[in-house]
């Protein structure tokens, strides 16, 4: 996984800043895809297929490719933070997760391994289920801050065609006055990795996809944090909402979120 991410990351580093060669197209009003997204995904696909020829794939650009029955699949966002990438902002990542099939064959189950790789500053956040979360070889722990008034939290802001501005504004109004600060950096997988690394005390966003949250969610859990939907219920990667945080701030945040979406 790391070898594949480093190879694809090298391509992204080379393409970064070459906007005129990136063949930008739109999937929605503010939803861009570039040659760099596709090339990174192709590299990841080739490398991972070579390593595990019988596993399946769920990829942002290429969709679903079945593997052999009973085998895991890779969930891939080849470039999380395309808008940052396009604007020359060096904050984007490659996100890869491994999802196991359910034992009874009734669909997809747990995420068991995760990697979020930030090519520009060469940070590799990874986790294995029950074996912890790591930044390179340093064990990760969520932040120990216990007061909302000391908490720095991250979010994603809706954009044209994605998300509900009214709901986001209500949530912002509920959380903003309580916390030390709110950030919007533009790559959900890195927001989650940074919660795992204790850089943020929490993160919330709606309208996300499995490839945005699968790897980062495992990182947070394995770093001792909590991941849920906005009401505090367990979050499945197909849920579009995610709230991640340390204990006890996760529960304080989910009460504020739940109140704001009820209002
Ligand atoms: C996006 C980023 C962004 C989030 C969007 C995602 P993409 O992913 O994670 O932070 O706010 O909802 O779609 O399209 O750059 O891979
Ligand atoms: Ca995208
Ligand atoms: Ca993404
Ligand atoms: Ca993407």
From TrEMBL:
<dbReference type="Pfam" id="PF00459">
    <property type="entry name" value="Inositol_P"/>
</dbReference>
<feature type="binding site">
    <location>
        <position position="212"/>
    </location>
    <ligand>
        <name>Mg(2+)</name>
    </ligand>
</feature>
<feature type="binding site">
    <location>
        <position position="77"/>
    </location>
    <ligand>
        <name>Mg(2+)</name>
    </ligand>
</feature>
<comment type="similarity">
    <text>Belongs to the inositol monophosphatase superfamily.</text>
</comment>
<dbReference type="GO" id="GO:0006020">
    <property type="term" value="P:inositol metabolic process"/>
</dbReference>
<feature type="binding site">
    <location>
        <position position="79"/>
    </location>
    <ligand>
        <name>Mg(2+)</name>
    </ligand>
</feature>
<dbReference type="GO" id="GO:0046872">
    <property type="term" value="F:metal ion binding"/>
</dbReference>
<protein>
    <recommendedName>
        <fullName>Inositol-1-monophosphatase</fullName>
        <ecNumber>3.1.3.25</ecNumber>
    </recommendedName>
</protein>
<feature type="binding site">
    <location>
        <position position="80"/>
    </location>
    <ligand>
        <name>Mg(2+)</name>
    </ligand>
</feature>
<dbReference type="InterPro" id="IPR020583">
    <property type="entry name" value="Inositol_monoP_metal-BS"/>
</dbReference>
<dbReference type="InterPro" id="IPR000760">
    <property type="entry name" value="Inositol_monophosphatase-like"/>
</dbReference>
<dbReference type="GO" id="GO:0008934">
    <property type="term" value="F:inositol monophosphate 1-phosphatase activity"/>
</dbReference>
<dbReference type="GO" id="GO:0046854">
    <property type="term" value="P:phosphatidylinositol phosphate biosynthetic process"/>
</dbReference>
<dbReference type="InterPro" id="IPR022337">
    <property type="entry name" value="Inositol_monophosphatase_SuhB"/>
</dbReference>
<keyword id="KW-0460">Magnesium</keyword>
<dbReference type="GO" id="GO:0007165">
    <property type="term" value="P:signal transduction"/>
</dbReference>
<dbReference type="InterPro" id="IPR020550">
    <property type="entry name" value="Inositol_monophosphatase_CS"/>
</dbReference>
<keyword id="KW-0378">Hydrolase</keyword>
<dbReference type="InterPro" id="IPR033942">
    <property type="entry name" value="IMPase"/>
</dbReference>
<feature type="binding site">
    <location>
        <position position="60"/>
    </location>
    <ligand>
        <name>Mg(2+)</name>
    </ligand>
</feature>
<keyword id="KW-0479">Metal-binding</keyword>
